[in-house]
Design goal:
This protein is mostly helical and about 230 residues long. The chain has eleven helices and no strands.
Length: about 230
């Protein structure tokens, strides 16, 4: 089943004390933009050797490892960041995403819960625009809720999953993905008509070549078939 794979990277530097760090950062980001993740990791390694205290390099190297499906290795980078700065909310979110990919659902939920707590206690819950914010460690509450809602679905915490996904829908955040997963919540809860309606919304709101739309179309056929069998 398609998941919402979203790993957050730092793509803007506010202040750098070292021109070499700045040059390496720009080089690595350029490679990331070209999806040359192996090559980017080599540059992130050089940057970390040059400045081992620069935490965004660990975040971005972890993101590249995540893109290469090296989830356990990505987690190591995020763990390092968290040990150095326990309020680095992006590290908690990204580690949760990696745990989700490894099917470590409870660990993922714990990470997302920590991210939400930090969001509320340290950053406040005002919506942020990714990559254009004062503090590059911050993330949107909606992103946390979306990922946690998916994790809750996997552990059959239907009410909690519904609450998180409903919040994302209310905020008009990642609408196609949010409706897609809320449809699965309804389906698992035995509310097939509501699931049908949400899958229809996915089809109407998404692009024809979107994986969510393709999967939603297949699911509608299954729901139609099941409805016919029950008649």
């Amino acid at each position: 089943m398609k998941r919402h794979n979203c790993i957050i990277i730092v793509i803007a530097l506010l202040f750098l004390s070292c021109s070499r760090t700045n040059k390496l950062f720009d080089e690595a980001v350029s490679l990331d933009n070209q999806k040359k993740y192996h090559e980017a990791i080599v540059v992130w390694n050089k940057l970390i050797q040059n400045d081992p205290t620069y935490l965004p390099a660990y975040i971005n190297r972890g993101a590249d490892k995540f893109a290469l499906k090296q989830y356990s290795e990505a987690i190591k980078d995020y763990c390092y960041v968290i040990r150095q700065d326990s309020t680095y909310i992006m590290a908690w979110l990204n580690r949760g995403n990696a745990n989700l990919e490894l099917n470590n659902y409870q660990s993922a939920i714990d990470d997302f819960n920590a991210a939400e707590r930090i969001k509320r206690e340290v950053y406040g819950c005002a919506q942020v625009i990714f990559y254009d914010k004062i503090d590059p460690k911050d993330v949107a509450l909606e992103e946390i809720c979306l990922q946690r809602g998916i994790a809750y679905w996997y552990v059959d915490s239907i009410n909690k999953a519904y609450s998180d996904l409903n919040y994302c829908i209310d905020q008009k955040y990642e609408v196609v993905c949010s409706y897609f997963w809320r449809a699965y919540v309804y389906w698992k809860a035995g509310k097939e008509q509501e699931a049908y309606n949400d899958f229809m919304t996915v089809i109407l709101q998404g692009r024809a070549d979107d994986d969510y739309v393709i999967q939603a179309q297949q699911n509608l056929k299954l729901l139609d078939k099941h409805s016919i069998l029950l008649k």
